[in-house]
Amino acid sequence: MPSSKFVQHAKKVIEQHPEVFEALLEYERTGKVPKPNPKRRANFTINAKLLRSYREYCQKQGYTMSARIQKFIQEELRKVS
After folding, report:
1. pLDDT (tens digit, 9 = 90+) per residue, 36-62?
2. SS (H, E, C) 7-18
3. What is the mean pLDDT of residues 3-10?
4. By CB neighbour count within 10 A (0-12 exposed, 13-18 middle, 19+ buried), where does 58 fall?
5. Is the whole model's pTM more than 0.85, yes or no?
């Protein structure tokens, strides 16, 4: 594989899986492999009444709020893809 093709392929892999590249950078920096945790905490503001209502709804339905919100975000992103 010519080097320019290799570089193109490497850039594509990094774009598709940035968490792997970040783990390699962390290993290089610390000498330790970080535990895989693809989830990140998000901080945003939302109407308090809406949040309370949604929390109650999720509890009654047996849903996890974060999983439901993640699904909504994925659906939104599919619309623009």
Report:
1. 767 888 999 999 999 999 999 999 999
2. HHHHHHHHHHCH
3. 85
4. middle
5. no
**Structural domain boundaries enclosing 26:** 1-38
Number of domains in the chain: 2
- In contact, 30 and 24? CB cutoff 8 Å: no
Measured CA distances, 34 to 13, 39, 55, 76 (Å): 19, 13, 32, 30
Same domain? 33 vs 1: yes
Q: Determine the Cα angle at 45 with ends 44 and 48, to 5°.
A: 140
Q: Are residues 47 and 29 located together in one domain of the fold?
A: no
Looking at the structure, do residues 81 and 46 belong to the same domain, yes or no? yes
DSSP code of residue 39:
-
**32 and 51 share one domain:** no
Please name the residue ranges forming H helices in 31-64: 48-61
Burial of 23 (0-12, 13-18, 19+ CB in 10 A): middle
